[in-house]
Amino acid sequence: MDPITRIAELEAQVREVLAVVAAKDATIADLTAKLQAMDVRLSAMQRRIFGRSSEQLHDPGQQVLDLLGKDPLPFGTAALTAEVTAANQEPVVEAPARRQPRGKRLGRLPEHVEVVERVIDVPAAERIGVDGRPLMRLTDEITERLDYIPSHYRRLRIVRPVYGRPFTDGDVQPRVVAEPPAFLVAKGLPTDALAIQVVIAKYADHLPLYRQTAIAARQGVHLSRSTLCGWVEAVTTRLRPVWDAIGAEVRAGPYLPAPGRHAHPSAGHESLRHRTIMDLRRPRCRALALRANARWLLAT
Fold it and tell me: Which residue range is the domain that position 23 belongs to?
């Protein structure tokens, strides 16, 4: 065999061996990194479960075991370095707090609550001393309790005096009367305070309208559910400008909150069960939003 050909074959074999060695080195480095990451996370999880309260980590997202994940370092190099540093640090033992003396622990009442004084005095006959002279008021024993006034309905009677000349023609001297006040429910029974309270109880306190009718019935005020629905509609109609402003601010951004049950429009991507936003810059996302009955969010 020609020596030059033989040398060329040997060089090719050497290159193949070097390529195999480099691939194995890369595999070893990858497995080493995975092993280090898993050791750190297992140590953190053990300290979280079995360690003392002062040694536990406060961020539960840092102890997620990604044993089958594709990325051995899902939190990045900085997070791994922080975990290694936290694992190697000695636990800081804080000085025990000074215990409060045992006794009645009375909560402090808020300062903005209205204060109503109720004086409980002794009878006048008991304020006479043994020498027959009246006793002096030296001091007061003051205790505070948190009181509650149950909500109740009342009739607001609006009186508008009418001024004019009796027994005269209205064209000569027209009658003068104040304009009636404006209410959220123009033609109805409630004042603004009652209508707003119904809306707050329904949406903030999660109190359905049928329960509100039962509460009113206990006080002798019988209100149908359809009546309360009309009040809620009147209040929400006045809030339409606020609703439009919020919608305009949401539509001004490039992303839109989307329901998690719809599939991602891009092929090859997972479901939106763990996604919360949609990229409106993508035509297929806009089409998906339309199919999800979100036309009002995309309106200009």
Answer: 3-87
Q: Which residues contact 298 (CB under 8 A, 6 or more apart)?
A: 251, 256, 280, 286, 289, 290
Please tell me the pTM assigned to this model: 0.50
In a domain, 99, yes or no: no
pLDDT tens sequence across 210-251: 999 999 999 999 999 999 999 999 999 999 999 889 888 877
| Same domain for 83 and 17 | yes
The tens digit of pLDDT for each residue in 291-300 reads 554 444 444 3
